[in-house]
Amino acid sequence: MPTFVADFCSGGIVGVCYGRNADDLPTPDKAAQLVQQHNIKYIRIYDSNIQVLKAFANTGVELMIGVPNSDLLAFSQFQSNADSWLKNSILPYYPATKITYITVGLEVTESPDNASALVVPAMQNVLTALKKVGLHKRIKVSSTHSLGVLSRSFPPSAGAFSSKYAYFLKPMLEFLAENQSPFMIDLYPYYAYRDSPSNVSLDYALFQSSSEVIDPNTGLLYTNMFDAQIDALYFALMALNFRTIRVMVTETGWPSKGSPKEKAATPDNAQIYNSNLIRHVINDSGTPGKPGEELDVYIFSLFNENRKPGLESERNWGLFYPDQTSVYNLDFSGKGAVDMTNSANGTNANGTTWCIASSKASESELQSALDWACGPGNVDCSAIQPSQPCFEPDNLVSHASYAFNSYYQQNGASDVACSFGGYGVKVDKDPSYETCIYLTTKGMNKTISSNTTAMANTSSSTQTEVCTWIVGFFLMTLITFVLNLGNAIDASF
Predict the structure, then answer these.
(1) Which H or E run includes 237?
(2) Widest CA span of the chain, in angstroms?
(3) Confidence band, pLDDT 50/70/90 cuts, at residue 188
(4) Which of 87, 169, 184, 388 could cross-link to 144 by cystine, CB 3.0-4.6 Å?
């Protein structure tokens, strides 16, 4: 199963927001199990719900928790309120539950009661409460904002904070700089495209633009809106001489469904945006203004939330449905094509299953399995050749997945036909994408019946053939291990 953030990567991290504005969600315990199942290491919640904190105890998942806007008045007025909250709602569950950030207030400039004047005093009281128990170095305090805090965001070099928020932004930025806390922003290129499609191209919003937008002041080239918005923030911070504050994206994502006028809200676009975002972050590519800068990002959201008001898209940002099945396949590793699907203990409504490559296999293991499938396995691998429909993304997991599935379908979709030495995984969600269509047994019936090498004649030998390959595969792996061990020993003398 793919990891959300590669363990060897010390750079930017990708987390997921766990909103709970719904009446059909799984219990926090089940949500925590789902998060662990998909190796998601970072979760943001919007309060300090005790059941959620308990559910994530001893999971290793790092939590960002929140102080809601409704509590800002109490937290800002009396230090004792912040002290009591920390003592009763946080300390009983820490450190078994790993809490790394506390967000004080949620996009306060967007709230109707505009409690922004209360934010910094509340932040200071929360920090003081943490200092009293010696946790101020381990748990950072900040607040989240919408891009509306900027009066200008284009071109990025002209990024500037709105003067009408200066009364609370200046003390907040001083607080963040002094305490080495990040400036937290919620960024949604989706809305920029939806509300102004004549000025923003869909490809530019989805990280897929082949053209570049040039900042006339700096000459910097931008190929996606996300980077442009991040740099606008950095330039706004620099304009106020806050050069040490780093930016953290506490919400971003793309909806999978929308109202009739929200035509860009589709599973395909959501998959494209989030996959490209993950790849962008874990590669530490940074932005044109901050090349190589590590960036932490949280995708919104874990589940679809049926009680959110507004247009249809508002209820369809989830990576998962409330029944814990995935809304679309998502590449968590940032390397290629698969997968966020569930292992097929059952099957989908059509009874169809597919076989894909496990991302836990090493490159050498996958390459050996791929070579076998395209050779002795008699799989037609032309579709994964350059310029063919399934060549992109050009990586072993994607190519092996196509080949594994083809062999699996050709051989009756039996369990043993998806073995591949333990590196094949059965799924019940179609892994097809764009013009790359994964075969199914039902779709192959006509082809098989007219094929002169009809697989029906060879299906009886499938188990023997696969088992022979497994033995050979593991023998080859063992030999490689021994040789590498010998080389390592030689090198140590």
Answers:
(1) helix 225-239
(2) 82
(3) very high
(4) 184
DSSP output for 14-72: EEEE-----SSPPPHHHHHHHHHHTT--EEE-SS--HHHHHHTTTS--EEEEEE-GGGH
Q: Catalytic amino acids? A: 107, 251
Question: Which amino acid is it at 295?
Answer: L
Is residue 168 within 8 Å of residue 119, measured between CB atoms? yes
Token pair for 408 = 């699996």
Q: 14-315 sits in which CATH class?
A: alpha beta
The residue among 296, 55, 21, 60 whose CA lies nearest residue 185 is 296
Closest by CA to 155, choosing from 211, 208, 227, is 227
Which pTM was predicted?
Answer: 0.69
Q: Please give the Cα distance from 339 to 127 (Å, whole number).
A: 40
Q: Extract long-range pairs of 458-465: CB within 8 Å, 24+ residues apart.
A: 458/411, 459/411, 459/412, 462/411, 462/412, 462/414, 462/416, 462/417, 463/416, 465/376
Strands (E), 228-307: 247-252, 297-300
Structure confidence by residue, pLDDT tens digits, 370-407: 998 998 888 999 999 998 989 988 888 899 999 999 99
By the 10 Å C-beta count (0-12 exposed, 13-18 middle, 19+ buried), 475 is classed as exposed
Rounded Cα distance between 417 and 45, Å, is 42
